[in-house]
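To whoever is on call:

I kicked off a structure prediction for a single chain this morning and the downstream step that reads the tokens threw a length-mismatch warning. I double-checked the sequence; it's 476 residues and nothing unusual in it as far as I can see. Pasting both halves so you can look.
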Amino acid sequence: MDIARLTRKAECEWWIEPEGKMRVPAVIYATEALVRDMDEKVREQITNVATLPGIVRAAYCMPDAHWGYGFPIGGVAAFDAEAEGIVSAGGVGFDISCGVRTLFTGLKAGEVEPVKEQLADALFRSVPAGLGSRGKIHLDAAAMRAMLRGGARWAVDQGYGRPDDLDFVEENGCMAGAAPEEVSEQAMKRQQDEMGTLGSGNHYLEVQRVAEVYDEGAAHSFHLEPDDVVVSIHCGSRGLGHQIGSEYLKQMVVTAAGYGIELPDRELACAPIKSPVGQSYLGAMRSAINCALANRQIITHLVRDAFAGLFPGRDLPLLYDVSHNTCKVEEHVVDGKPRQLFVHRKGATRAFGPGHAELPPAYRETGQPVIIGGTMGTASHILAGTAASESLAFSSSCHGAGRAMSRHEALRHWQGQAIVQELAGKGILIRTRSYRGVAEEAPGAYKDVRAVAEAADAAGLSRKVARLAPLVCVKG
């Protein structure tokens, strides 16, 4: 990206001042190096977002931002329904409520190392992964509707986990306002055999060790110590979410002009929040959030079973579960007054700071755990939400490393089998059903996740707590 076209307001804060049809500025939080590496398409897309009706304060880009569908991935924007604000399917994305859940194991790396091969195989057998993967659970129409209403709570009621799991899940495991009647039969059909599956792309199940602690106080609150072993699950709403996104994007493109919305890019298709289309989408989207929460809850149950075979008596409690492709109604202070806003986070993570009422009591003093997924060959990071993030970006932070090149380009650079062998030489075991998928997700195809985490910390969006190094990774 050409930094000459940006106004630098702070070390990691860059503004695109309003021009043309922009209603608000666009703000990018990143180091100079990360901004320079961003595609010009990111600038174009976040500028387009700033033109949408009802947008509040600014359109934001996180440090891992890269080109996406309509909104950049790593984009954050909030809209006010009382000011003719809109809801955008492109601003949520196709993998609705994709997110990361991290579990404690109570083990040290030295205890896992002797049985790492067996553990990798057990997890690979237990958790279906890959394009079109199917699980052992089949949902009929009634069960599907119950799942879409109940989310992780439904999963726990079905025996997949424990009630105390829900204390450490966004929305306590169930998104209010879900309307399964707004979800098409085709979307539900695609999901009926996919519960408890990882899917493909950048999704993963990873066994990790705490390789470095940056903030001992926060790490203590999160029960993290050096050399601890944790498990992270990264997946979303699978075929159901993709179908909902596809259907409503098409519908919003058709109806936008009728609502007087001039789209700078048809991929920014949207509808007024209060319109029938907007309300229908919100009901379907919230159902997909519940699908993703239930999916990660079921996978948690499968992971616990796999660990029990090698480490009897370990219960693997939750650290946290947070999504990064959502639109949620939240109260934020704007110009000194609290307002109810529809906050879109696409490839961005909610990052509530200390004292927020929606956080579990255990984390209220420290701030929300923010889980930044890395690549199978580098690291992931745990951060904590800050009070400053409220005014910086509606309490938002980055969600991962962010792609540095397309999947197609990655295939020209790497071979999946060679990557698996190379990582095995470094002590990282990969289990996959698709070498092509491994090549598409090669570590070199992503930005430097350490630089992204440091930028989020330097900008004040969230503060670094710990770095997690991969030991075992199950890929689709």
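Update from on-call: the warning came from a stale cache, not from the record. Cleared it. Sanity check on the structure: The mean pLDDT is 96.
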